[in-house]
Amino acid sequence: LDAFPNLPALCNKHPKPPQIRFQYGTAGFRTIATVLDSVLFRVGVLAALRSKRLEGRTIGVMVTASHNPEQDNGVKLVDPRGEMLDASWETHATVLSNAGTTDEFVLELEKLVDRMGIDLSRPARVVYGRDTRPSGPSLVSALEDGLAALGAEVRDAGITTTPILHYLVRAINTLGTEESYGEDSEQGYYQKLSAAYNKLVSPRQTPPPLLVDCANGVGAIIAERFAGYLGDRLTLVLENTAIDTAGALNNACGADFVKTSQKLPPSLVGRLQPGQRGCSFDGDADRLMYFYLDERSQFHMLDGDKIAALVAAFIVDLVKTAGLESQIKVGVVQTAYANGASTKYLSERLPVRCVSTGVKHLHHAAENFNVGVYFEANGHGTVLFSPAAQETLATYEPSTPAQSTALEHLRNLNLLINQTVGDALSDMLLVEVVLAHKTYDGSDWDSLYIDLPNRLVKVVVPDRNQFKTEDAERQLVSPPGLQAKINDLVRRYEGGRSFVRPSGTEDVVRVYAEAGNKSNADELAFRVAGLVY
Ligand code: NG1
Ligand code: ZN
User: Fold this and answer.
1) Which of 115, 119, 178, 343 has the most beta carbons within 10 angstroms of its beta carbon?
2) Cα–Cα distance list, 217 to 131, 161, 245, 412 (Å)
3) For residue 27, how far is its CA from the centre of ligand 2 (angstroms)?
């Protein structure tokens, strides 16, 4: 590392706070923003190393704490194909972030460089962005110091959404190749999505105006710019756009609020009309929740499971109509949090797999299908078209006009969907396309299946690491004996289901329960929580 003489001095500018242990978890590093300065510096160094390790391919860094409160922040790395950081590097990130002093940090770096055989003379290229959090600029400057310490070539994507940052990484790394993902700019992203949408929805199918809750975050900026590309083919009514109001981000609004409280954000009362569709983004616009009010102004939530059901059924139909049933196998990936009714609905139509919580698990499982649909119940998800499926779509020769139309739709969906990661904007267009084709309103969509009443609670425990699971987190293996007690309780509730797992993003254990009616679901959740505590 002698080739980088500024490294120690720059590192000294960003001392690690004592007594804090950082961990690169399912959402990268995420905690209260005031303690993250050293982490950002070190992530900058690590991103540069990862790029050098991959022969100068561009790595992404996103500074965000998503749906979490405004005073939190976080950072995650994006690999060259626009996907989440390779799991083996999560450990390196954790180790580097916890080195106590500059000397210890440099020592850990040297070990990593040795072990990975990293050629430090290679170029390093990094693109980074941040959400609207007030702590963003200072954290980004710590990141920039880390990148400068290794002489990385940098590109600042500015204030942007997590999915746009992922798009940029993939676009930059595929520029001018056969796999080109689009122009490597925010405009390129808008053009790609709007062009695909306009081919999928004809003028006479133009949907009624859609209310969009931007969570007072970056989604407001991006949706506003994007609206210009949609013209009159989809009218977005933007709400909760106060990105400069202190404390407003994700506060009583946004996708996480809607999912956890199962209520309309109070700010939308009187704004959303009965019969109208609305949707909520989260703070970095990678999650999407839909909802509508019925004629009696009753609120109905359409969550990630409902999106999966809507989209998967639509794609399966298109594949059949195109005559591609034997060549393109469509499958769905869910987690244990998926509503039991959605799993039943989907299983009757196509293969469904359950995996552990965390996008990386869902994403990888979805890659095993030709077309893999994955959505977390909380609204994070996408659809992946495998290279083989894309090849089939590109070369298939339809033999009837109906086949040809269905094929064209599938090709455009492949362009409309941001396949690097969940993307609220792209997923919103996808939903609008399906609703337009099916001539569904919110209530038609909602009635695909009826959600089982459910309840999610958090329990603060002395040590969440005591809780260990198997079978895609549906069974506890530790603490010993606890699962048997849960099973005993669950048996007493008709249609009951419950599981317990440690959170990967918060220092809590989560308890989920479903039952035949709401009060039983609540009761079961609280009784299981009582066992956990
Ligand atoms: P944890 O804290 O591990 O439950 C939460 C979400 C995940 C995922 C991650 C990453 C729930 C119950 N859990 O994980 O689905 O989105 O955050 O943001 O929603
Ligand atoms: Zn998010």
Assistant:
1) 343
2) 7, 9, 10, 29
3) 9
Whether 187-302 shares its CATH topology with 454-532 is answered: no
- CATH code given to domain 187-302: 3.40.120.10
Find the distance separating the first CA and the last CA of the chain, reported in whole Å.
49
Residue 72 has pLDDT above 90, yes or no: yes
**Inter-residue contact 134 to 70 (CB < 8 Å):** yes
- Phi, psi at 365, each rounded to 5°: -65, -35
Q: What is the complex's ipTM, to 2 decimals?
A: 0.97
What tokens appear for 24 in the block? 């690169």
Per-residue pLDDT band at 504 (split at 50, 70, 90)? confident
Active centre residues (catalytic) = 66
Distances (CA, A) of 151 to 7, 14, 93, 249: 10, 17, 19, 34
236 lines ligand 1 (CB under 6 A): no
CA–CA distance, 182 with 166 (Å, rounded to integer): 12
Q: What would the CATH number be for the domain defined by 454-532?
A: 3.30.310.50
- Side-chain-side CA neighbours of 15 within 13 Å: the count stands at 5
* Residue boundaries of the structural domains of the chain: 7-159, 187-302, 304-421+434-446, 454-532
What CATH number should be reported for the domain whose range is 7-159?
A: 3.40.120.10
Ordered strands of the 509-514 beta sheet? 454-459, 509-514, 497-502
Distance from the alpha carbon of residue 67 to the mean position of ligand 2, in angstroms: 5
Q: Which residues contact 481 (CB under 8 A, 6 or more apart)?
A: none
Q: What is the DSSP string of 425-439?
A: HHHHHHHHHHHHHHT
Ligand 1 closest atom vs CA 259: 19
Is 505 annotated as belonging to a binding site? Answer: yes
* pLDDT (average), residues 116-142: 98
CATH assignment of 304-421+434-446, among 3.40.120.10, 3.40.47.10, 3.40.50.1970, 3.40.50.720: 3.40.120.10
Task: Tell me how far apart the alpha carbons of residues 283 and 218 are, in angstroms, rounded to a whole number.
Answer: 7
Strands 288-293 and 277-281: antiparallel
Spatial distance between the Cα atoms of 12 and 99, rounded to a whole number of angstroms: 12
Sheet containing 210-213, strands listed edge to edge, beginning at the edge strand earlier in sequence: 236-239, 210-213, 277-281, 288-293, 299-302
Please give the full DSSP string across 152-206, using - where no structure is assigned: -EEEEEEE--HHHHHHHHHHHHHTTSTT--S-SSHHHHHHHHHHHHHHHS-GGGP
Q: Tell me the H-state helices in 59-161.
A: 87-98, 102-116, 136-149
**Residue 231 confidence (pLDDT):** 87
Q: From the CB of residue 110, how many other CB atoms can be counted at a distance below 10 Å?
A: 11
pLDDT for the residue numbered 468: 98
